[in-house]
Write the structure tokens for this entry.
Amino acid sequence: MPDPPMITTTGARTPAVDWNARIIAEFRANAGYVAWSSEEEFAAGRPVPPRIPGFDERGMPLILVHHIGAESGRERINPLFYQPVGDAWAVFGTHGGSPRHPVWYRNLMANPQATVEAGTERVAVVARLAEGAERARLWAKEVALVPKFAEFEAAAGRQIPVVVLERVQARTVISPLPEK
């Protein structure tokens, strides 16, 4: 799945961000879950895919990753699929099978201090690249859950980066979420 376009907290928008804003609003209204897309919505570019086995009727659990643009210095927000890793989250830079890494990945590697919205919690995190056996384990588990990710890696011709977002301090909430 391609990475969604970015929305800044200052309101500046990149092209085709309407669905991104809609996904963020839906995420916040539903404590971190976003409804499944119909085939028609998915074909039209809505980023949450058709139903994936292993998830219930609430839809896909996502996290919102707030990160700083490597070049712009502006805050960006990306809704991302994730895999829980203890008290942290793993995210996957598939970029829909593009040969290039997603912008959010490059931003996190340049500025690893970030914030994650998970459910109704906002948490300070530090991003790090998973490597070796850790990456292999996380990637295998994700591919078992979402086989399409293996197709993305093959199409990309690059190893998909796995980024672990670790809490700065366990369970530290840095600010309340906006009201619904």
